[in-house]
Design brief:
Layout lengths: L3 E3 L13 H5 L8 E3 L12 H4 L20 E6 L19 E2 L16 H10 L16 E6 L8 H10 L5 E4 L1 E3 L13 H13 L7 E5 L14 H4 L3 E7 L15 E6 L3 E4 L12 E4 L2 H18 L5 H11 L4 H5 L2 E2 L11 E2 L10 H10 L10 E7 L3 E3 L4 E8 L4 E14 L5 E6 L5 E6 L12 E8 L9 E9 L6 E14 L5 E3 L4 H4 L7 E2 L8 E3 L8 E3 L5 E4 L2 E5 L7 E3 L6 E3 L6 E3 L6 E3 L6 E3 L8 E3 L7 E3 L1 H7 L12 E6 L2 E7 L9 E8 L10 E2 L1
Parallel strand pairs: 3-5, 3-6, 4-5, 6-8, 8-9, 9-10, 24-26, 25-29, 26-30, 27-31, 30-32, 31-33, 32-34, 33-35, 34-36, 35-39, 36-40
Antiparallel strand pairs: 1-7, 2-12, 11-12, 13-14, 15-23, 16-23, 17-22, 18-21, 18-23, 19-20, 19-22, 28-29, 37-38, 38-39
């Protein structure tokens, strides 16, 4: 059995200058490049993963409100220099554990244990403290779980760390196993590890689930694949690939159908053990590897959970998938699946990137407006199998099918369990094809570069995220290609396990910045929903202004592209994003949130609810507010600390009548100070007054 190792590149030779140009030199800075620090967050400009507007993660735009406060991010790693001045404020010494020495102090054991300190800085290095750079979630609590790696590893240490992870919100794992199919949760050695992860997603966070983030690995050149490893391949894990400064997949990043998302992982500037103790002589280093892409995503999840603490772990995965950026490199080899709810059609996915490059701004905005709580216990599940033996012809392709009858399940993930016999397993390529024609390569000549898998049988479960949003009904095909001559074999049986949500008629349609390109597709430019239900359009991930008309047959303008709501399509709920939006409701009872920006909103004839979740949503004008309409200020007032139910009587909400209408103000400090009363919105032409019966507090 291979030992678990870190997914970071070897220490660099030489020196990399502290400025952005030095970091970007050659397109791939090596791990351990030395940096100097002077001034207020002096290395901020060198943190391209944060500062780069095109290939970074767009996180600074949400830092004004979110930093990860109140969220605990655990790190399973080799030790943590928690006294480092960029880590000390956020590190939770009362919660850390050392599973090597069996105590509660996860400080590094010796001079080679540098990895955990670098990972911790990517997540939660302090912000604006005149020292070094910043973490993605610089206000999150950091909890170190120390285990040993390499030849010293004890699987029991990792198991104990995974069991303890139930008490955390996010757990970063920048490590994995080598070989192929060794870390198998169906084996005696690793069955308890899989159960520990399952228990954490089932019971962690009060049933909402602990979020496990795993680095994909750095073994692309040797033919590795996340689908050969159950830690990365688990439906409870978010497997993360690495990108470079150009938005391309890093040359080392391990691919696979279980990769959910990617993040910057080349030349990432972070904390190093101080002085001469760490990778370099100095307190900071530029490091590379999926080891440092994973904590970028862990930090983004912390921001999401601060924005919406009610997210289930499956919600987190879905938001990351639906909000991901599509870089030029991603698009060159991207494919589109058969879903219908992302930018008017299917999701684009990539075998290397997953659904794309993590976008902190878009993910946080979707998190703020997310309405569901998708957990382990409310997941819809369905299994189907085939026991018909299939002969695998030498140097040919054979196919087996499973027909799934009508079932109301919308897919998150598909798990494929295969039982194969073949004299040379490394000849085989396995591809799963959905009823809509979406193809996902599950296995591609596993172990070829290392002389094979070491076995003539394979009983293993592989995971794919590529079918996200599709239905299960229809014929699924497993294609088994024998890519080399000389040997034959047999597919003895195979099984499909679908995980997702029960399909109802309450549909959610998500639009992102990708619509600027995709909206040119005439099919995506029309939204058609004829099955009734309470339906929602969500544009919260879009920064720029949109013009939305919710009436059937009406045309809207999104990112310069036309979007038509088809005749007979009734949309009840709407969320928009940061721009100064123009919104027109329909005759239904709409729930409308214009988000940030100075929006102009016409609710329409129905009894409408206008939602304001934060003071940043201020500046709107509602042009047709009537006696039947309601203001939902519950999120805003709760965020300000109000605990009552009669906000006007208690002086938290005030109004001022003018000749043009009614100004609605909120006492932002809760002290009754006239100076603190800020105008939240304006009800144009409205003279009917406002009472607590018209306000949801």
């Amino acid at each position: 059995m291979d030992e678990p190792v870190f997914f970071s590149l070897p220490q660099a030779r030489g020196h990399v200058a502290g400025g952005p140009a030095g970091i970007a030199a050659g397109g791939a800075a090596e791990a351990g490049a030395q940096l100097s620090a002077t001034g207020a967050d002096p290395l901020a400009g060198s943190q391209w993963h944060i500062a780069n507007a095109n290939t970074g993660i767009d996180v600074q735009s949400v830092w004004g409100r979110y930093s990860g406060r109140g969220v605990l991010v655990g790190i399973i790693d080799d030790g943590f220099q928690y006294t480092h001045a960029d880590l000390a404020a956020n590190y939770r010494t009362a919660l850390d554990r050392d599973f090597v020495r069996k105590d509660n102090d996860a400080a590094p054991v010796d001079g080679t244990h540098n990895h955990g300190t670098a990972v911790a800085g990517v997540i939660g290095a302090a912000y604006n403290n005149a020292y070094g750079g910043s973490g993605v979630a610089w206000g999150a609590g950091l909890v170190g779980y120390q285990v040993s790696f390499g030849t010293n590893t004890s699987t029991s240490e990792i198991l104990e760390a995974l069991k303890a992870a139930r008490s955390l919100d996010v757990v970063n794992n920048s490590w994995g196993y080598g070989g192929v199919f060794g870390d198998n949760f169906s084996s005696i050695t690793f069955a308890q590890h899989g159960k520990a992860m399952e228990d954490a997603v089932r019971y962690g966070r009060g049933g909402l689930g602990t979020n496990f983030v795993f680095a994909a690995g750095n073994d692309r050149a040797s033919g590795q694949n996340v689908n050969y490893h159950d830690f990365q391949n688990s439906p409870y894990a978010i497997a993360v690939g690495a990108t470079d400064q150009n938005g391309a997949i890093a040359s080392f990043s391990t691919p696979g159908a279980a990769i959910l998302i990617s993040a910057p992982g080349v030349g990432v500037v972070t904390t190093d053990r101080t002085g001469s103790s760490g990778y370099v002589s100095g307190d900071f280093a530029a490091v590379s590897g999926t080891s440092f892409a994973a904590p970028v995503v862990s930090g983004v999840i912390a921001l999401m959970l601060e924005a919406n603490s009610g997210l289930g772990y499956r919600d987190v995965q879905e938001i990351l998938a639906y909000s991901a950026q599509k870089t030029a490199s991603f698009l060159t080899t991207a494919r589109t699946n058969g879903a219908t709810d992302w930018n008017g059609g299917g999701l684009t996915y990539n075998h290397d990137f997953g659904f794309g490059l993590v976008d902190a701004h878009a993910a946080v905005r979707l998190a703020e407006t997310w309405q569901s709580k998708s957990t382990f216990d409310n997941a819809a599940k369905l299994s189907a199998s085939s026991t018909a033996k299939l002969a695998l012809q030498d140097a040919g392709t054979a196919s087996s099918t499973i027909k799934v009858g009508s079932a109301d399940l919308e897919i998150d993930r598909v798990e494929v369990t295969v039982d194969l016999s073949h004299a040379r397993m490394s000849d085989l390529v396995l591809t799963l094809v959905s009823p809509t024609g979406t193809e996902s390569v599950l296995m591609s000549r596993a172990g070829l570069s290392s002389g094979g898998t070491g076995s003539t049988t394979l009983k293993f479960t592989m995971d794919s995220v590529h079918f996200w949003g599709e239905g299960v009904t229809g014929t699924w095909t497993l294609k088994v290609q024998d890519a080399a001559s000389g040997f034959t074999g047999t597919l003895n049986s195979w099984k499909l396990d679908f995980i997702g949500d029960a399909i109802g008629n309450n549909d959610l349609y998500i639009y992102t910045d990708a619509f600027a390109t995709l909206g040119a597709d005439s099919k995506r430019a029309v939204l058609r929903d004829l099955d009734g239900g309470i339906d929602t359009m969500n544009f919260a991930a879009i920064k720029s202004a949109v013009q939305i008309d919710m009436n059937a047959g009406a045309k809207s303008v999104v990112l310069g592209k036309s979007l038509t709501i088809a005749a007979g399509t009734l949309i009840e709920n709407l969320f928009t994003g940061d721009g100064n939006d123009t919104i027109t409701g329909n005759a239904l009872s709409n729930r409308i949130s214009g988000g940030r920006g100075a929006d102009v909103i016409k609710g329409g004839a129905g009894a409408d609810v206008f939602i304001y979740a934060r003071m940043e949503d201020k500046g709107d004008v509602i042009t047709d507010f009537s006696q039947q309409d309601i203001l939902d200020l519950s999120g805003l007032l709760d965020g300000l600390g109000y605990k009552g139910s009669t906000a006007m009587a208690d002086g938290w909400v005030k109004t001022a009548q003018t000749s043009r209408g009614l100004s609605v103000m909120v006492d932002a400090d809760g002290l009754g100070s006239a100076m603190a009363a800020q105008e939240l919105l304006f009800l144009q032409g409205y003279t009917g007054g406002l009472s607590d019966s018209r306000i949801i507090a």
